[in-house]
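Hi Y.,

Following your request, here is the sequence exactly as I used it, all 152 residues.
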Amino acid sequence: MALEQSIDNLATALNRLAAALSDKSAEALAREQKWSEAKTESFPPEEKPLQHPDEDPKPKYTGTKCSVCGELQFDTPSGISCKNGHGGAAPATETAEPPIKLETVRAKLAKLAQAGKQKEVKALITSFGFKKLSAIPAEKFAEVLKKAEEIA
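Below is the corresponding structure, written out as tokens. Let me know if you'd prefer a different format.
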């Protein structure tokens, strides 16, 4: 009987040990999974610039000009306004021209370069104070196209 008691005690102890080991294995597995997920995240996390929650980062232009100053108008939470703050001013009768895209300017200058006017194209870009066409601000594209027409 003492032998059976000892065997039962030993079996109980072994079962407890097996249960404890399986719990530890599950914890270790969860820890390993958490660690591999953490390695894929960027550190430190990217910081976004502070912005008021109601503030829209880019103005939504209406395509109309202000009748007071002639500047482009855009939608604001309080209504239509221009950059000079002429809120509620009626739009001018004519609409603003669509903005000229970099691709349009690049295509025009590429045609000139293919026509053998590479030096003139390079001089045109540097006349605006830049080494590359992509560095020229979009506001200057109309002027660049006008000078390109003169070269042609």
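Residues 102-151 form one domain.

Thanks again,
Q.
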